[in-house]
Automatic annotation (TrEMBL):
<protein>
    <recommendedName>
        <fullName>Acyl-coenzyme A thioesterase THEM4</fullName>
        <ecNumber>3.1.2.2</ecNumber>
    </recommendedName>
</protein>
<dbReference type="GO" id="GO:0006631">
    <property type="term" value="P:fatty acid metabolic process"/>
</dbReference>
<keyword id="KW-0963">Cytoplasm</keyword>
<keyword id="KW-0443">Lipid metabolism</keyword>
<dbReference type="GO" id="GO:0016020">
    <property type="term" value="C:membrane"/>
</dbReference>
<keyword id="KW-1003">Cell membrane</keyword>
<dbReference type="GO" id="GO:0016790">
    <property type="term" value="F:thiolester hydrolase activity"/>
</dbReference>
<keyword id="KW-0472">Membrane</keyword>
<keyword id="KW-0966">Cell projection</keyword>
<dbReference type="Pfam" id="PF03061">
    <property type="entry name" value="4HBT"/>
</dbReference>
<keyword id="KW-0378">Hydrolase</keyword>
<dbReference type="InterPro" id="IPR052365">
    <property type="entry name" value="THEM4/THEM5_acyl-CoA_thioest"/>
</dbReference>
<keyword id="KW-0276">Fatty acid metabolism</keyword>
<comment type="similarity">
    <text>Belongs to the THEM4/THEM5 thioesterase family.</text>
</comment>
<keyword id="KW-0053">Apoptosis</keyword>
<dbReference type="InterPro" id="IPR006683">
    <property type="entry name" value="Thioestr_dom"/>
</dbReference>
<feature type="domain" description="Thioesterase">
    <location>
        <begin position="52"/>
        <end position="129"/>
    </location>
</feature>
Length: 153
């Protein structure tokens, strides 16, 4: 299986870089229309209850999965394979999450994302998070394209 994150170079992100030793290492697939990510939380990812997932982790997973989806779609729109040629880099402009149900920590968490809008610099990504087919959270993320040098000090 090919994952978006494994095709992106120079990515140090806490949520999605394969090379950040302390990160979440999320893995997302892209089929040309939607992206999927499976994530199994650890017991320490719990909220106030040990049975449910911490909302900040949910936000983090949705953030990275959605931005990676925007990046994958942008490569596709330019007729390039993900990671091919000049780097396409997006960052999170805004993230609006509705926590609909407590998310069982037993997981696995299934994130699914697709674009509702794809402009020159701005993409809007809709993302859901489900466990065992039950919708636990939904989100809208605005991803903004930035130069690949965006993170340089
Ligand atoms: C290989 C790489 C792999 C990378 C994966 C990394 C995943 C990382 C996910 C993250 O966590 S990124 C870190 C969290 N995000 C940030 O730190 C972003 C900080 N903010 C900025 O750097 C700038 O504010 C930003 C680049 C988002 C926008 O500044 P600009 O001056 O370039 O925006 P501009 O004013 O030109 O607006 C461009 C469009 O974006 C829209 N926009 C700008 N900021 C927005 C915002 N905050 N929310 C919603 N929309 C926004 C704006 O309305 C406009 O839309 P329209 O084209 O429709 O008019």
């Amino acid at each position: 299986m090919t994952f978006i994150q494994d095709q992106l170079a120079d990515n140090h992100c806490f949520g999605c870089s394969p090379d950040n030793p302390h990160g979440h290492h999320i893995k997302s697939t892209w089929d040309g229309e939607r992206s999927i990510c499976h994530f199994s939380p650890k017991p320490w990812h719990c909220a106030g209850s040990p049975h449910y997932v911490y909302g900040g982790l949910i936000a983090s997973l949705i953030d990275c999965h959605s931005v990676c989806t925007a990046i994958a779609e942008a490569y596709q729109r330019e007729g390039r394979a993900i990671g091919e040629g000049e780097t396409i880099f997006y960052v999170t402009g805004s993230l609006n999450i509705s926590y609909l149900k407590a998310t069982p920590i037993a997981g696995p968490l299934v994130l699914e994302a697709r674009l509702s809008e794809a402009g020159r610099r701005k993409s809007v990504v809709l993302c859901t998070l489900s466990v065992n087919g039950e919708l636990c959270a939904k989100a809208e993320l605005v991803a903004i394209r930035v130069p690949a040098s965006w993170g340089e000090a």
